[in-house]
Amino acid sequence: MTTGNPTNQDPGTRGARSPDGRPDWPADVRRVALGIRRRVLDHTLRNNGGYLSQACSSADALATLYVHLMKLGQSVAPAVPLPFPGVPGPDNPGYSTGAGYNGPHEPGLDRFFFSPVHYALVLYSTLIEVGRMAPEGLAQFNRDGSSVELIGAEHSPGHEVTAGSLAQCLSQAAGVAMARKLKGDTGHNWVFMSDGEFQEGQTFEAIAAMAWHKIDNVTVLVDANAQQCDGAMSTVMEIDPIAERVRAFGGTAADVDGHDPEAIAAAASARVPGKPLVIVCHTDPCRGIPLLATRGEKLHYVRFKSAQEEAVFRAVLSEMTQDGNRPDGADAAALSSPAVLGAGKPGGRE
Questions:
Q1: Which CATH superfamily is domain 6-80+98-340 in?
Q2: What's the rounded Cα separation, in Å, for the pair 122 and 151?
Q3: At the N or C end, where does the chain have fewer CB atoms within 10 A?
Q4: Rounded to 5°, angle at Cα 201 from 154 and 178
Q5: Which tens digit of pLDDT belongs to each residue from 137-154?
Q6: CB 293: neighbour CB atoms within 10 A?
């Protein structure tokens, strides 16, 4: 089982999938993460705007999920996303969410819930890098009538629920997970969140409810980049230590280096029966593009202030592209081989 349709690949890192036991899967993760950052930087340059720091901080965690942790079926969605299908209802029988990009809903397969929907560009880039969405789909980004929205919604590629306002997704995922457990499904439920969502009380209510109902088929990865719209979280509303707060509400939690795929995977394997697991991935919003640090705390949404600044970032993109074409970089041939795409068991989880 692959992570996508290899016939839709272009030069890049798409198609990566490390089967269980493959010793070099962390290298695959790093290649995919480089591709995500590079693709988001390229888009930001082309459009003079993008959630670039979010790609820098979350690429490794998202790549670890898609390459190694999640047991997903092949995409059942169009490689090039269809236009906005209209709102769901009895007069729109063909409506579907963007969940098809993560494969079919089957009892033995995992489900993925994406909470920080302003990271949508990062998720679309991830889907492209692992072969679940065609690169041409990104040309529809933020266009009128497109489902490839700037702020993702349930009809956007890779999204299963509408998660804004922030912090609503975990409650929805918990409900799905509870229903799946009652039905006897063996597939796991993965949630990706940002640390700012822990400023919302609903997050902790969801954790408490999952602990009470023993919903232990949920694992949450948190991009703890310590940044939010108004600047550093330490200057807006400090919420650390997140892990201790999660434990206080009945969950289990681990702190890890969010740029270390093996540390993330190890934490994901340490589940406790009867409790949801929250993995706090401490990350750097400038990871892979250290030039971003020159912007100080103005990292939430990147626009270039001058042609000179844009030229400097274009030079960074050129360097990242060269890195990706080296044997230890994001070379497509290494990731689209049968050994990566189809060998071993269908999922990445033990």
A1: Thiamin diphosphate (ThDP)-binding fold, Pyr/PP domains (3.40.50.970)
A2: 11
A3: C
A4: 55
A5: 999 999 999 999 989 999
A6: 12
